[in-house]
Design a protein that fits this description.
Two copies of one chain form a homodimer. By secondary structure, chain A is α/β, with parallel strands linked by helices. Chain A contains 14 helices and eleven strands. Chain A folds into two domains: about 140 residues, Thiolase/Chalcone synthase (Peroxisomal Thiolase, Chain A, domain 1, 3-Layer(aba) Sandwich); about 220 residues, Thiolase/Chalcone synthase (Peroxisomal Thiolase, Chain A, domain 1), CATH 3.40.47. In chain A, β5 and β6 form a beta hairpin. The two termini of chain A are about 20 Å apart. Chains A and B meet through α2, α3, β3, α4 and α5 of A and α2, α3, β3, α4 and α5 of B.
């Protein structure tokens, strides 16, 4: 396998935006290509994560749209869809395309346009990431699914409602340092705890956001990255991808998500690293309980101890393993198909030392964790700045 | 690159079926795995082409569904979507995953469930493969798009309405020998020519079908294929993938489809072959005019001569380059996401000599051509039986 690095990154602001799909792709795609400092003709292929523009924008075939909007005619451009992991899977495929020697320079991106639709339509679109026949058509929604997971966590360990609220407080605070974030906010714990219930035990601030946004990156062989000599070289040293059942009822357990375990094991092994070697991580906090479970499944904390770690400040900006310093899905926003690439954007920005006010003092090895649906798909990547 | 071969194939009957997505995947997936003669645990990853179950079945995240339905837990399973080329792109990615050394045995499939929806909903779903903002929302449909292409062809060359009808006659006749075909029919030219207009100059029999169906295959290194020693080894000797604009108005010409030119050039070069070396081909005849144009773009005939070739019987079962002996999209059926893999199914079946009544006497090198939308994506594969 050839060594692969990230040579360019770009993203839009996240939130309720006036831009449609074309404009989001144009802005983030051009930013990434400009950041790489390459000609468009140097790009040989592309991958684009998009979850459900079919429902939300009557638009499929987003690959060809990216080619047309960015003026990249005749190159192969592949849309990947794996629910909320659509972007992470695009990154994995783009990585493989370069590592496997098929292409030297590849564009990878993600896009989602959501806020123009009613909550009902968005909720129904999101539910298409679970099993329609056996789950969604019976009325299950994602807050409902993750509420079951939270209840099971409470049952197996203890009630961590307060710790979940603390995840929200930290993430909204982190977002105050991120100019691209959708909901920067200095919240106190009481406000979060007293917010309206969505699906018990999840209340308003336990849920991630509905967001418009796009993020793109350019990958190349590390040899090319070094020859460009424009930014600190950021190499993808570990790449993992795993699946699990589509349904929640098919899973053998709910408080350990097997796809995270398997994908992160692959990435750690490839990188020759263990969890304690990671300086910081962007993880898939679709709900606050999810961040706690993921922090355990990635090996940052023992099973059942992730909630304590939050209260002890271990996942805060100045903790031993800062998680979601971008604000995460919770506060930066969750433009579904773009989320996996926006995580990459944050990690590369930190590794380059370009994160301005939110720059972490120690940022040499970062991890992205992106999953889809009820953890039916998971992609994990580990990046190192040289 | 490692050499890659097809070790297993399976498909459902094509047509208006009672089965839903789960059942279609189960049937075709298990057939392919059984045909390969391997244990399910030997499969390391998978790719699944699906166009628009989002609209048609409220179902995204089909990758995780495939894993669950077939009992392939925790392996990465990637949905690709590129309109009608979703299956061909899945094949391309699966090929790369094995050729690049990431996995030794990979499942690849495609599925679409369409006939349970009204014509209005299916037409609107199909239109999501063109540019919604600038085309579909203004009322353009795919019969409308390809009608423009046909008119342009008539303008640049001559009126080939009769030759288009002959494509339909041949394909429906070919389908009579295919037990999986949706619309086997012995039609006479007058019936086809006198059918109701859909979008001038395209009439009823110029259009491909609305179809439920699934097709799967198992790819492996050629080394593994030979060690299994179960079927004639069928190697993928050329793989090409190219894009073009999403919109029809963005194309520089309408009677030569650049994505076909570029993808087939890649495949021919990799295989070290030229068009005249191909024994037979399954091509993307979404409309009869399209088959004529594709037969020129693939280099089987000179530009403007593809229609003559049809009348002269050159593309018939006993012609110099039999096209769509399966019946094609026109008569076997067009289960969108599955089409690219069903083409592979036919080519492998012929190369193995397993095509029963429709077996071609000369079948050593076959080609699949699958495109999406208004030719915004194209995948071409060349296979050889050893």
């Amino acid at each position: 396998m050839r060594s692969v690095s990230v040579i360019g990154i770009g993203e839009t602001k996240m939130g309720k935006l006036d831009s449609g799909l074309h404009e989001l792709i144009l802005e983030a795609g051009n930013k990434a290509i400009e950041d790489a400092g390459i000609e468009k003709t140097a790009i040989e292929a592309g991958y684009i994560g998009n979850f459900d523009s079919a429902h939300l924008c009557n638009q499929n075939h987003i690959g060809a749209m990216v080619s047309e909007v960015l003026g990249l005619k005749n190159i192969p451009m592949i849309r990947t869809e794996a629910a909320c992991a659509s972007g992470g899977v695009a990154l994995r495929q783009a990585y493989m395309a370069v590592a496997g020697g098929f292409y030297d320079i590849v564009l990878v991106g993600g896009v989602e346009k959501m806020t123009h639709q009613s909550t009902d339509i968005v909720t129904s679109a999101l539910a298409s990431a679970m099993d329609y026949e056996k789950e969604a058509s019976l009325g299950l929604t994602f807050p409902g699914s993750f509420a079951m997971i939270a209840h099971r966590y409470f049952h197996e360990f203890r009630n961590v409602k307060k710790e979940m609220a603390m995840v929200a407080v930290q993430s909204h605070k982190n977002a105050m340092l991120n100019p691209d974030a959708q909901m920067p906010r200095d919240l106190d714990l009481e406000t979060v705890l007293n917010a309206d219930l969505v699906a018990s035990p999840l209340s308003l601030y336990d849920c991630s956001l509905i967001t418009d946004g796009a993020a793109f990156a350019v990958l190349a062989t590390t040899e090319i990255a070094q020859s460009l000599n424009k930014h600190r070289t950021v190499e993808i040293i570990g790449s993992g991808h795993a699946g699990d059942t589509l349904s929640i009822f098919g899973k053998k357990q709910l408080t350990t998500l097997d796809a995270t375990i398997s994908a992160s094991k692959q990435a750690y092994e490839q990188a020759g690293l263990k969890a304690s070697d990671i300086d910081f991580a962007e993880v898939h906090d679709c709900f606050t309980i999810t961040q706690i479970i993921i922090s355990e499944d990635l090996g940052f904390f023992e099973k059942g101890k992730g909630a304590d770690a939050v209260l002890e400040g271990k996942t805060a900006r100045d903790g031993i393993i800062p998680i979601n310093v971008s604000g995460g899905l919770k506060a930066k926003g969750h433009p579904i198909g773009a989320t996996g690439i926006s995580q990459l954007y944050e990690v590369v920005t930190q590794l380059r030392g370009d994160a301005d006010k939110r720059q972490l003092p120690k940022a040499n090895i970062g991890l992205t964790h992106n999953f889809g649906g009820t953890a039916g798909t998971c992609a994990v990547h580990i990046l190192k700045g040289w």
